[in-house]
Structure formats: C-alpha cells, structure tokens
Design goal:
The complex is a heterotrimer of chains A (about 325), B (about 325) and C (about 300). Chain A is an alpha/beta fold. Chain A contains 12 helices and 12 strands. In chain A, helix 3 crosses helix 4. With about 325 residues, chain B is of the alpha/beta class. In chain B, the strands form 3 sheets. Chain B has an 8-stranded mixed β-sheet, with helices on both faces. Chain B has a 4-stranded antiparallel β-sheet with strand order 4-1-6-7, covered by helices on one side. A two-stranded antiparallel sheet of chain B has the order 2-3. In chain B, a hairpin with a 5-residue loop joins strand 13 and strand 14. The interface between A and B is large, with 44 and 45 residues. Chain B: Pfam families: ABC_tran, oligo_HPY. Chain B: It is an enzyme of class 7 (translocase).
C-alpha cells in the first residue's frame, strides 16, 4: 500500500458568482521514501494541491470530493484535532518563504523545542538535544549558537536550512516542499536542494517537491506530475518524461527552456497563457494553446492513457498509441 | 574596435544607511562619535556596450547588477564615475539637455504588475511618451505609431481602452516593451525582464526581445540572474559579484571555459535537465553584506583557491589568452 | 463616444465597488438618507414653507409653538417654531444647507492644500518633506476649535456683527479648511511614498517626463482612493466643527442659522419646556454626521487595496 494516496480530489473556491474549480480529479500516490515532483506554472494549482493534502486550504477554498489516504486513513474526512497530530509530525511542510514558518520574535531554539513538545512528551532538555541534532544534520555552521538566535539574524539560505531542520524534527514520513528555493540565489538553491535530497535519502523520507523548475525536478525527483489548470495532465517516472514528454504542454514547457534552444535562435514557444480559474476552456483546458487540438479536445477532458510508464491525458497521444497498435497488428 | 555606444567608466554607487547628521552620532566607548555606514552597491565597474550587441550582466542578489542598470538610465546618480552615450557624457545632464537621451535609451522593468500605471489605459500608456517626445506629430501619426508598436509586440490594437490589470503577466510585459519601443530607442536596458514570468511566457518574451533587436537594430544591456537565459540571449557576459565585475567574456567563451572560480560555481549551480542529481561546485559560506566589504578580492571568503594575496590586493580585470577578461589573482598567476 | 460611455457604465456595474454597495444594506440606507438630506438642502428654497431669512414673514406671535401632535400646535408649522416665531422645518432645511456648504467647502479647501503639500512632501522628500511635515505637526498640535475661536473673535471684533454675518460662512470654510489640511496631507504623503517606489514611476522618469507631470498625472490618480475615504470622514468632522463653533456663538449668526446655531438658539428655552427648538436640529445633525461616517467606513472597507485586488 502506498504511504499517501490521493484519489479523485476535487477542490473548489466559493466566490461570488459561484464555485471555481481549482483542482479536478487529482489522483496520485507517494510511496515510502519516494521523491515526487509536482510541476506547473503559476495558476496550475500545484500549491493548492500541496495545501489540500494537509487539509490546510484557506477559505473560500474547500475540498469538494475525493479522498486523501495517508496510511489508509482519509485526511479529508478527519477532524481538526486528528489532523493536528499528523501535521508537522508525520507530514511536514516547507514553504517558499521561511518567514511563514518562523516566528520573528522567538529564538530558533524556542520554536524548535515548542514544535517537538507539541507532539512528544519529553523534557525540554531532551527536546533541545533533538533540535541541536537536526541543526547539525542540515549542516548549519555553529548550530549551538543558532539555537539562541532570532530568525532575522540569519541569511536567507540559513533560514531555509533551519526550516528543513524544523521539518525533520519529528522524523516525518513525508515532507511537502512548496517552491523551497525559489526565493534563493542559484548557488544557495543548489546547496539547499542537495541537502534536501541527501537527507530524504538518509532518513528514508518521502518528498513531495512543488516547483516550476524542470531542472530541479530532474535533479531531485524520481517521479513527476505535470499540472495544467487544476488537472494532472501527465505523470510518470521523471527521467522518462524529461527525455520524452508525451503531452504537448509538457513538451512545450521543456522545449521553451533557454537551455534547450540553439544560442541566438528563437526559443520554442507555447502561444497564449494559462487560463484563469474563472474561464477554464471546455474539454482539455490546454486545447486553445495546443497545435494538435481537434474538435474532440474541445468537447471533453481526455481520459488517461498509458504510454511506457507514463500516464497522459491527451487525445493526440491516445490516437498515436492506437495507431501504433494497429500497425503492430497489421505486421503480425 | 569601433567606439562603444554606451560606456560605463569607474562607476561607483553607495547608498547611505546612516541618515542625517544627528542619527549618525553614536555613543561608543565613553565618547560621542560620528559613524557613517553605507551600502557599497557598485565598486568600480567599467563596461562598454557595443552597438548591436546584447551585453548581459549576471550575478546573484546584492551583486549590484540592477544598480548598474538604474545608474545607466539616470534613475540613480553615480557616487563616482561617468556614463557616456555615443561619446557624450550623460550622467550629469539635466532637464532639456537629457531629453534626447531619454528617447534613445529606454528601460524594461522586472515586475510587469508594477510597471504599468494602474489608472491608465493601454492607449494612454503608449500615447503619452509619443506625444511627449513628438509634440509636432499629428493625431494620425501618433495613432499609426501606437498601432505599429502594439502590432510588433503581439498585442491586439483593439485592447487600447483596457487597463493593465485586465491582462496576464506576459501580456503586461509585452505592453511595457511596446511602451519602450514607442519612442524608437536605440538602446534598451532590460532589468530582469522575464524573471517574474512563467516558463512558457519567458520564452515568448525572450523571442519578442530578440525579434525587436533584429528588426530595429537595438542594443541591449540585459540584467539577469539566470545564466541559461544568458547563454541563449547574450553576445557578451559580465559576471558581477559584490559590486565588481569578476569576469567579462564572449558568451561562447564564458560557457565553454569559465575562468573565474565564482563563474565556475555559478555555472555549475544551474539545474540542468540532463542531471540526475545536483552536481555543483560547493562554495564556503555565504555572500558577505555589501556594508562591510571584505578587503582584497571580494570573493576570497568563499573561494577555494584564495591565498594571502587575494586577501590583501584587489584583482583587476586582465585579458587572458582565451579572450576573456578575468579579475582573479589565481588565474593571473596561472594557479588556476 | 457613446460606446465609451456605455462601456464605462458597464464597467462600473460590474465593478467590486458597485457589487459591494448593492450587498451592504447599511451603505445603501446611509446613501439614501444622505441623498435625501442633500437634495432637501439644495432645494430648500423650493421645499421650505417659509423663508427664515425674510423678516417680513416672521410673526413674533407664533414663537415657541410646539411640533404637530402636541398641545397648542399649529398645522402651518409642522415642526413647531423657534423663539422668534420662525418655522422650524424651514430653518432646519436652510440650516442643513449652510452646514453642508461649510462641510463640503472646508473639505475642498483641505483637499486642495493637503493634496498639494502631501504630494510635494512625499515625492520630493528630503528637506521639503521635513519642512512641510513639521508645519503640519505644528498645525495639528493646535486644536481646530482653539484656532477658530481666536480667528473668529478677531474677525468679529474687526468687522462688526453685521459685516461678520455676511462673511461668516467663508470664514468658517477657511478656518476649518486650513486647520485640518494636515490630515489629508499625511494620508496623501503616505500613499505617495508607497506609490513612488513602484516601477511605473521609474518608467515615467525614464521617459523623461518632468516632476510635475509625474506627480499629478501618474502618482496622484493612484492615491485618490485613500483621499476619497478620508475626505468623506472629514466632511463629517467639518460639519461637527462648524456646529461646535456656532454653538459657542463664533459661527453662523442667528439670522443665517446653521444646524449648530439652531441648537444654540434653542438651548436657552430647554428649561422653559420648548425642547424641540434644540432637539430636532440636534437630531438632524446627528443623523447627517452618522450617515456620512457610515458611508466613510464602508468606503474604507471597499477601497482597502488588499481586499479590493483579491
């Protein structure tokens, strides 16, 4: 059984003029120790997906359907009390902005000890020892000193290390990291990603990494999901998707990267932009920007088809697979 | 080599942190003393932009790249040094004398959500600069010019009566580019023009900038933190660290053979699609604050090759046999 | 041209402003009450049964008649009469007119001064900012009433009572306007400081636009929302200030009464049982100020940029 299994998750926002669908029929699973990348541009719903796993969606958002099974228990149906036992304890979260997690008026040590004592019945001294151990794990220079420092005394990279240390405090099974390095410089980003990857491997923690950076995804994750307009349009092993993307959107996203283009030549570009939640196109939401769109694409959202180890929601891909099958049959 | 279009000479920029005279007074060690603190954003930068090229300035936050851009455009006045445009010194021009350069030099900003006036329609946004710089033009000429720039950036001319907030980030950046192009500039400073945009939109805007360069013969000073973009877009690259240029080279040369240890680390840190794991050169420590600059080479605290000379003496940009100019004692001495 | 106006009207009808107004019952009620009072005041000469300024229409025999419904009431005077025999309904209509004129006039003056100085201080910064804001601080540390009392007393002494009656309304507008400009200047300055950091201002500078053009055409329109909110509240404050001054006898003379001077003129007769001369104008004043403040609160909620853009 998978550690985390999300089944047909629907999330909506109740706003004036009716509900907006932020996530539609999201299904994926995460195994123990697995690293999963969630890729998409802004407005794709990747952060909403991350927040809804812990049932942390802020009003006016709400989970309209589906299940979030963590070790077989449905988080979507749990009470706030039960959820609190899981959040931060079994599933930890890392945000883009460290100041969302850190309280500016408390020392790092106080915050870490409090986080431990909220879930464990141990002495303050023992908690402090755990905190120190985690700070050492994230390779912060002079960790003892850091315990008594305030967040503003640390640099951005250091703060993000502290956040990772806090996430690791209670030996969680899953870490959800929402764009953890977007606000950081490239050299710092590389170090933080390296650290996160090594820690997850050492401690056998599952990682759900939400990012817009395909380079980071390919470096860190084993499997990836590509989201567009609140739907998962492609999911499968990272290497397979990066090397040979099936969905026209994923292909476009990869080919649009400057590193894929000839220097000086025009980059591949996907026309248009991601639709807002208020006017999601009918059928496949990508069809107005897609070169392969047909009438079929405008009518209904395509079902997933399997190509290699990758699940893709695209009529064009389905047709290609169908053709291939027929050719093989004709040959035999 | 022909004379450069823009040349930046010995540029320095400090931002005073200590406030007024009274605020500078500190009580230290039993007596009152005056303490002045400043952020040393740029510390002696020399750059020349050749006509028709795209000179990219890269570096991490706090390296002074945006300050260079803003100083060149006259949004900030330099603490020391000069800016020349077409052989004429422009950093000391004021009022009417500066106007011709305002038309020839334009700027594209990072945040398309803030760079368009929220109370102005697209039409007004584009019309104002044209009328301002060409008061003698007839309404028909103005309208034609607006249509021309809107067309060339891929914005439907019928959208003129709409406001900026009705558009997506990519479309807004197109409008901002149209505004810059509306006065027919020769030289455009682009300060991180794509870093606030999504990946698929970044490609659209980069292509647009390249098209404009080709069709209008533009010269760019392109500020970015993204080396992948530089490799694609730049003719030459200047790598900045803590207010100094540490390497200046042709794009091809720099990417084929980065010489400065910082450039090497920066290049290795780009997450590449073909990587299965992060493999980057580890640097010690973090970027020092530009308030208390390290002595000698500003990079010595994080450099694996630093020696005593690096801690004492500031390295100058020196041409190497590869064609790159590098400010590094180790490269100069052949240690690296 | 017509298409443009239609689309502007459509845009307004689709806007958050209109949407939240429609949903806010307090705002609608306040707006309707205010509208009714403003219209009644504007058209007072047409609506009022009598002209309280016309001495020939006043009969001292009608003095201190109670409102309709009480013993001894005369149906010709629905709200009763005051001590001089003037119809109270008419004097209230005219008085509201005077109070509103002073309120609006003072705020227009405040806004003109406040916007100009606030823009200059916020945009130019440095010494200009320091000097203007210190002047504002000094100005605010005098209470409006104190300044008004002194100026009013000087005016009264130097022009004499008759002349004073004619210029009183302008004097009140001037005093209240000048005394309260720092409120608006501070609001403007604060939003200018936020706006001038935005890139559209840099873009305007890069275009070579002059400072006045950037200040008035680019920054000012973006600071209008908070100005609008505070101006609404300031109208209410100006009306109260005027009422207080008139109550102290330093405002409008009894021959051209405002709501404040009406309250004052009736105050002497409360003991003798003619409470209505004070109470009814007092109620009108309270309602007027209350609806303006309620509208101001609603405006502030709607124009809060964080809520507005969300």
């Amino acid at each position: 059984m998978a550690l985390l299994e999300v089944k047909n998750l629907d999330v909506r926002f109740a706003v004036r003029g009716g509900d907006l669908t932020a996530l539609r029929r999201i299904s994926f699973s995460l195994d123990k120790g697995e690293r999963l990348g969630l890729v998409g541009e802004s407005g794709a719903g990747k952060s909403v997906a991350a927040f809804s796993i812990l049932n942390l969606i802020a009003k006016p958002g709400y989970i309209a359907g589906g299940q979030i099974l963590f070790e077989g228990k449905d988080l979507a149906a749990m009470s706030e009390r039960e959820l609190r036992k899981i959040r931060g304890n079994r599933i930890a979260m890392i945000f883009q902005d460290p100041m969302m997690t850190l309280n500016p008026v408390l020392t790092i040590g106080t915050q870490m000890v409090e986080a431990i004592l909220a879930h464990r019945k141990i002495s303050k001294k023992e908690a402090r020892a755990i905190a120190l151990d985690r700070l050492q794990k994230v390779q912060i220079p002079s960790p003892e000193k850091r315990l008594d420092q305030y967040p503003h005394e640390l640099s951005g990279g250091m703060r993000q290390r502290v956040i990772i240390a806090i996430a690791l405090l209670l030996d969680p099974e899953i870490i959800i990291a929402d764009e953890p390095t977007t606000a950081l410089d490239v050299t710092i980003q590389a170090e933080i990603m390296d650290l996160l990857l090594n820690l997850c491997e050492q401690e056998n923690v599952a990682l759900m990494l939400i990012t817009h950076d395909l380079g980071v995804v390919s470096q860190v994750t084993q499997r990836m999901l590509v989201m567009y307009s609140g739907r998962i349009i492609e999911q499968g092993p990272t290497r397979e998707i990066i090397n040979d993307a099936r969905h026209p959107y994923t292909q476009g996203l990869i080919n649009a990267l400057p590193q894929m283009g000839e220097p000086g030549a025009r980059l591949f570009q996907i026309p248009g932009s991601m639709p807002s939640l208020k006017n999601v196109p009918s059928g496949c939401p990508f069809h107005p920007r897609c070169n392969f769109a047909t009438d079929q694409c405008k009518r209904a959202m395509p079902e997933y088809v399997r190509s290699g180890n990758v699940d893709v929601a695209c009529y064009e891909v389905a047709n290609l697979i169908e053709q291939e099958k027929r050719m093989q049959e004709a040959e035999s | 080599m022909t004379s450069p279009l823009v040349s930046i000479r010995g540029l320095e920029k400090r931002f005073d942190l200590s406030g007024s005279f009274l605020e500078q007074l500190r009580f230290e060690g039993g007596r009152l003393r005056r303490k002045q603190e400043a952020v040393h954003a740029i510390n002696g930068v020399n750059l020349e932009v050749q006509k028709g090229e795209a000179l990219c300035v890269v570096g991490e936050s706090g390296c002074g790249k945006s300050t260079v851009a803003r100083t060149v455009m006259g949004l900030l006045s330099p603490s020391a040094g000069e800016i020349h445009y077409g052989g004429q010194r422009i950093d000391n021009l004021e009022g009417k004398a500066a106007l011709p350069y305002r038309r020839k030099m334009q700027m594209i900003f990072q945040n398309p959500y803030a760079s368009l006036n929220p109370r102005m329609t697209i039409q007004q946004t584009l019309e104002e600069p044209i009328r301002f710089h060409h008061p003698d033009w007839s309404p028909v000429q103005v309208r034609d010019k607006i249509h021309e720039v809107m067309h060339s950036v891929g914005i439907d001319p019928d959208w003129g009566s709409r406001f900026g907030h009705e558009f997506s980030g990519g479309q807004r950046q197109r409008i901002a580019i149209a505004r810059a192009l509306a006065v027919d500039p020769e030289f455009i400073v682009a300060d991180e023009p794509i870093s606030a945009l999504d990946v698929s939109i970044q490609a659209q805007v980069l292509n647009l900038l390249m098209d404009a360069q080709e069709s209008r013969g533009l010269t760019y000073l392109f500020i970015t933190h993204d080396l992948a973009v530089v490799e694609h877009f730049g003719t030459r690259v200047a790598v900045m660290y803590l207010g100094r240029v540490c390497e200046l080279a042709d794009t091809k040369t720099l990417f084929a053979m980065p010489r400065h240890p910082y450039t090497q680390a920066l290049l290795s840190a780009i997450p590449k699609l073909e990587d299965d794991r992060p493999n980057h050169i580890r640097l010690q420590g973090e970027v020092p604050t530009p308030v208390n600059l390290p002595s000698g080479c500003v990079f010595h605290g994080r450099c694996p090759y630093a020696n005593e000379r690096c801690r004492q003496e500031v390295p100058q940009l020196i041409a190497t046999d590869g064609g790159a100019q590098v400010a590094c004692h180790a490269v100069e001495e052949g240690r690296l | 041209m017509t298409t443009a106006t239609v689309s502007r009207w459509d845009r307004f009808r689709e806007s958050f402003f209109w949407y939240s107004f429609k949903r806010d019952k307090v705002a609608i009620a306040s707006f309707l009450v205010l509208l009714a009072m403003v219209l009644a005041a504007v058209f007072a000469p047409l609506l009022a049964p009598a002209d309280p300024y016309d001495l020939a229409q006043i009969n001292i025999m009608n003095s201190e008649l109670p409102p309709v419904g009480l013993d001894g009431a005369d149906p010709a005077f629905p709200l009763g009469t005051d001590a001089q025999g003037r119809d109270l309904l008419s004097t209230i209509l005219y008085g509201t007119r005077v109070s509103l004129m002073i309120g609006f006039g003072a705020v227009v003056l405040q806004a003109a001064l406040g916007i100009l100085f606030g823009l200059l201080a916020g945009y130019l910064g440095g010494k200009v900012d320091a000097i203007l804001m210190r002047i504002a601080d000094v100005q605010l540390s005098f209470s409006t009433l104190m300044v008004a009392i002194i100026v009013g007393a000087v005016f009264k002494a130097s022009f004499g009572n008759l002349m004073f009656g004619e210029i009183a309304i302008y004097m009140l507008i001037f005093i209240i306007g000048v005394a309260e400009w720092p409120q608006i200047a501070r609001t403007v300055r604060a939003s200018v400081l936020a706006e001038k950091k935005k890139e559209y201002v840099d873009a305007a500078k890069v275009m070579g636009f002059g400072t006045p053009r950037i200040m008035f055409r680019h920054i000012l329109p973006n600071t209008l929302s908070p100005i609008f909110v505070i101006a609404t509240v300031q109208i209410a404050n100006a009306i109260i200030s005027e009422a207080a001054l008139s109550f102290l006898g330093l405002g409008m003379p009894e021959t051209q009464p405002s709501l404040g001077s009406l309250i004052k003129s009736g105050f002497d007769y409360i003991q003798s049982g003619s409470w209505w001369i004070t109470l009814i104008p007092g109620l009108v004043l309270v309602v007027l100020v209350l609806v303006i403040n309620l509208l101001g609160d609603w405006l502030r909620d709607v124009m809060n940029p964080r809520l507005y853009k969300g």
